[in-house]
Amino acid sequence: MNSARAFVIFALLAVGGCAAPPAALGPGAFRFAVMGDTPYSAREEKAFVAMLARLDREPIAFAIHVGDIKAGGNSPCTDSLYLERKADFERSRHPIVLTPGDNDWTDCRRKSNGAMDPIERLARLREIFFATPAALGHEPLALRAQSRCIAPVLPQCGCAAHPENRLWTYGRVTFVTLNVPGSEDNVGYDARNDREALCREEANRQWLDQAVHEVESSKGLALVIAIQADPWATGKDVYRGLVSEIGDVGKRLGRPVLFVHGDTHTYRLDWPFHDSDGTPIDNITRLETYGSPLVGWIDVTVDPSDPRLFRIDPHLEAIAR
Q1: Residues 6+ apart with CB under 8 A from 241
Q2: What is the pTM of this model?
Q3: Which residues pair with 32 in a beta bridge?
Q4: Closest CA to 304 of 178, 207, 173
């Protein structure tokens, strides 16, 4: 049995409650949580709030929510829902970093979601969740938000801000979030939305490059990339460029890269990562978190004394029927 397969099996055992208790951490080690695609209903919200309260008792440094804070249909994208979800996050003792999902803005165009303008809804998300370069929750976490002007590359994009893109370093590991939602990345609806997607894609590219530069200049241990979309969940090529970029990042860095996403609501731990041409890249691992109807979180331990660096332990929350 090779080490990668053993690693995956160990993580799967954790779902059934068979995993051993967390091992003692070495110097410089820390833990963070990953969650996403939840809550989608009042029942799930109750379990979600209970999960956040349980996480308050865990010694994690922070949590990342990879988007879809509401259902994709029959769930109008109202300000009141956004504010309700923000209140859930703000009750957390730990910092929470959010990146938007398709349910949160691109799918707001659906009739059952109120037939709202996705670009206007994204602007409102930015006002509610990303007005300052701060994490949600009680404890502070030093973040940077993307404010770089992308006009020199794409003049038609101007200097529109993408404050939902965040960047931070913790324990010699650099973390970056990119606004890459599902539902085809907001592409293929009309010229206005295609332009939005084009400009956001360029902003994401520049922000990812900035994160890689941070790792290189600081001689960091690793890079964690978090988005919402599952780039392999569509037969179209809208995410092909992103997959290629992530592959290039792995080759450029030559050190561990953890690629985190949600979207298809299926816990996955894949190694090695394959680029858009199918070439395996051994230093990149893909992690997808749980999603509705399941409410759960992934416990990621970063331990510089562990040859694997990342240890992955999934946890499910009980949902009352």
Answers
A1: 201, 276
A2: 0.92
A3: 300
A4: 173
